[in-house]
């Protein structure tokens, strides 16, 4: 199981796209990067999310904008140790910290982009979770972290 977390446009529900591909790696990722404001995070981290973010865990950002969530994600990451390991699937505080900071990075990127493109007037992008779906005709290759 995993959290498939993405920033979406509130009116269309479509995943927001960045101008340039990002190389953020979660439980699954796009080989060569993706422009999608999306990160898949393993459920293995859920007990740490709940410990530092309360009973809702990472779900506390659902429905929030990137601008609203970025400081919350950074604050949660600050209380965690820097014990990341090479094995993504191990629930260390350092691995969780990296996931939180990666989500905050997406949040900040979309907050800036929303202001540049006037989305703030039409509705702010929000974090959503859902099935790991792809747009038809996409030629991105997706892989699973090892």
Describe it.
The chain is of the alpha+beta class and 146 residues long. The protein has four helices and seven strands, in the order βββββααααββ. It has a three-stranded antiparallel sheet, covered by helices on one side. The protein has a two-stranded antiparallel sheet with strand order 2-4.
Largest sheet: 3 strands, antiparallel
| Strand order in space, largest sheet | 5-1-6
Look at the helices and sheets and give the structural class: alpha+beta
Overall shape: it is globular
Per-chain topology:
Elements lengths: L1 E7 L8 E6 L5 E4 L2 E3 L1 E5 L3 H8 L12 H13 L14 H25 L1 H4 L3 E4 L11 E4 L2
Antiparallel strand pairs: 1-5, 1-6, 2-4, 3-7
Describe this protein with a few key phrases.
146 residues, alpha+beta, three-stranded antiparallel β-sheet, two-stranded antiparallel ribbon, disordered C terminus
In short:
The protein has one domain. The chain is built from four helices and seven strands. The chain has helices at residues 46-53, 66-78, 93-117, 119-122; strands at residues 2-8, 17-22, 28-31, 34-36, 38-42, 126-129, 141-144.
């Amino acid at each position: 199981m995993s959290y498939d977390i993405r920033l979406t446009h509130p009116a269309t529900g479509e995943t927001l796209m960045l101008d340039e591909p990002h190389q953020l790696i979660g439980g699954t990722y796009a080989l060569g990067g993706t422009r999608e404001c999306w990160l898949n995070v393993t459920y293995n981290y859920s007990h740490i999310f709940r410990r530092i973010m309360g009973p809702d865990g990472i779900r506390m950002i659902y429905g929030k904008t990137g601008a609203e969530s970025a400081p919350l994600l950074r604050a949660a990451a600050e209380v965690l140790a820097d014990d990341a390991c090479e094995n993504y699937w191990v629930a260390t505080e350092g691995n969780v910290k990296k996931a939180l900071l990666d989500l905050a990075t997406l949040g900040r990127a979309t907050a800036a982009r929303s202001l540049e493109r006037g989305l703030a007037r039409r509705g702010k992008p929000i974090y959503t979770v859902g099935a790991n779906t792809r747009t038809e005709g996409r030629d991105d290759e997706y892989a699973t972290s090892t």
